[in-house]
Target: Transcriptional regulator
Amino acid sequence: MATVASLNPLESNNLCYRGIVGGVDVHTDLAGQLFGIVGRFRRQLRRSTRGGFDTDGLTQSQVELLRLVGRQPGISVREAAAELALAPNTASTLVSRLVGDGMLVRTVDPADRRVGRLQLTEPAQQIADESRAARRAALAEVLDRLDADERADLARGLAVLSQITRMLQKETTP
Model:
């Protein structure tokens, strides 16, 4: 297991990691590692659970929007755009397409008729529920194989990833 010794920006735009792996000092491009690992993780989780929205020929943005609405029924189009870091017009286009495909219902907020609220249709909600359960089960199975130290390392890593996400959101929020 690697032990972080220091963050060392060897190049101006690269975050590099200096650590010890098997007693050997190594330098690794953190940004490249992060892109690779997160991408592989998402793809493998999709393959492992085979189903849900990922098999419906939807774009990744559409899948993310459907999953968000599944987690937060009644979310506004504007809130969804902000949560997914999408331009409002891009989110609106995604919503229109998914409404047309029968996966989303857009209603007018009675308190503010300018606000559109989103809900999954019943078939989409069923897909979301089944997909979420399959992903959770697949992850629970492999997480159970980690020892306590590995789970603690993962929890710390997730906290850092969450912090990085918030920092990126602050930089891109007008």
